């Protein structure tokens, strides 16, 4: 009962994804929350690699999931997704998939301060 009350109070959720192997799990969890909660995902550090088209294919094959489909479902569900602009600037090899905006630490902090819950993966 207590966890149900806590879940009802959570309206805004922010995920911080620092490891690419966690991306499928985070997307699935975010999709589960999205009908009743405002969900935002920030991809940073090694987690940003999952947004590169080539690397997303590798993750899809390795995890036996369709990462492209999960990302599209997240976009369709209205989940906001950001990649750390420093990751994009420092690596010419990251070519982000459509629908993912580049943002800095200030954007992350603004969303985090307004969030009811922040999850780090």
Structure description:
The protein has about 120 residues and is α/β, with parallel strands linked by helices. Helices cover about 45% and strands about 20% of the residues. It has a five-stranded parallel beta sheet with strand order 4-3-2-1-5, with helices on both faces. The longest helix is centred in the first third of the chain and has 11 residues. The protein is globular and about 35 Å long. The mean pLDDT is about 85.
Features:
121 residues, single chain, alpha/beta, five-stranded parallel beta sheet, 6 helices, 5 strands, globular
Quick description:
This protein is of the alpha/beta class and 121 residues long.
Please specify the SSE layout and strand pairing.
Elements: H1 2-9, E1 12-17, H2 23-33, E2 38-43, H3 53-63, H4 67-76, E3 80-84, H5 85-90, E4 101-103, H6 105-114, E5 117-120
Parallel strand pairs: 1-2, 1-5, 2-3, 3-4
Helix pairs in contact: 2-4
Q: What structural class do helix, strand and pairing data support?
A: alpha/beta
Shape: globular
Strand content: 15-25%
Overall residue-averaged pLDDT value: 84
Largest sheet at a glance? Answer: 5 strands, parallel
Span between termini: 26 Å
Question: What is the string of SSEs from the N terminus onward?
Answer: HEHEHHEHEHE
Number of strands: 5
Strand order of the largest sheet: 4-3-2-1-5
Which residues sit in consecutive blocks of at least 5 with pLDDT less than 50? none
What is the tally of helical segments? Answer: 6
Q: Roughly what percent helix? A: 40-55%
